[in-house]
Amino acid sequence: MQRQYRTDYWGDAEARAVFRAWLRGMHGLDLTEWDERGCWPDHYRPFTWFGADGRILSSVQVYSLQLVVAGAPLRAAQLSGVGTDPAYRRRGWNRELTERALEWAAPDHDWVFLFADEDAVPYYRALGFEPARERAPVLDVGTRASGDPGRALDLGRADDWDFLARRARDRTPVSEVCGVLDAELFLCHALNSSATLHHHEELDLVLFAERDGGRFVVHDVLGGAFPSIDEFVARAVPDGAREVAFSFVPDRFGLGADDVRWEPVPDSGLHTLGGSPFGDRPFLMPRTAHA
After folding, report:
1. In whole angstroms, what separates CA 119 from the centre of its chain?
2. Do 248 and 260 fall into the same domain?
3. Per-residue pLDDT in tens (0 to 9) along the chain, 291 residues
């Protein structure tokens, strides 16, 4: 089978369109709108085998992320969108691409991680990846919630989109325990999620959140100064919610590890190479850090 190795080809509009179609077919993820809105980042790098007919046979991507871990900057490489055309599997092509990607990432990244489906775990274990235990923080609020998350943003409106894009690019990390600074990835989640974005004018926060029965799930927060948790619950958590589940560590609301209930994340799939930077502390990779 004739094949051609390519990397760093986003400047080739035709090849990028082929990649988008491949990713949609392989993983059900459509990045067309994200691309058309000018969000495609240079720090998202492909390592790809193309066939003679221009089709993608196998590909691995590295998304470089600027994280904040324990209050310090950390540059991470996340492997994502990994896949091989079913007709060409078990030939070692994807392993070769993964090794090339890891070799490329090694010099200027502090940490490498990925989220693996259960059937891919043995493959990544053979490459040296180890599972990392995430736990999700949940706060019981009883009957204290009496607020409103604010006006829902309509991303089909140019003014709402421009507002959100500005806030994303000016963002601060949602957590000093484990936070992410990446506007483009946040906007990708905003365009591809069923959760709603709200602008709470009084608190000057953008909330990426959704209601799940008696639980208010907060996936991310864009804002400079965070309020106390009591003020947040009173003003932004909707009446009737009895719990607030965070898709990140909520330390910036003034909550310590002992102030929340930590629930297991059974299908997390988080695997790290060369150990975890979190030690024994409870942690959760922010939802909007998933590439």
Report:
1. 21
2. yes
3. 799 999 999 999 999 999 999 999 999 999 999 999 999 999 999 999 999 999 999 999 999 999 999 999 999 999 999 999 999 999 999 999 999 999 999 999 999 999 999 889 999 999 999 999 999 999 999 999 999 999 999 999 999 999 999 999 999 999 999 999 999 999 999 999 999 999 999 999 999 999 999 999 999 999 989 999 999 999 999 999 999 999 999 999 999 999 999 999 988 999 999 999 998 889 999 999 999
Structural domain including 249 reads 136-175+182-264
DSSP, res 24: H
Query: How is residue 26 written in tokens?
Result: 């392989």
Q: d(Cα 122, Cα 132) in Å, to the nearest integer? A: 15
Q: Is 70 helix (H, G, I), strand (E, B) or coil?
A: coil
pTM over 0.70, yes/no = yes
Task: Tell me, yes or no, whether 83 lies in a domain.
Answer: yes
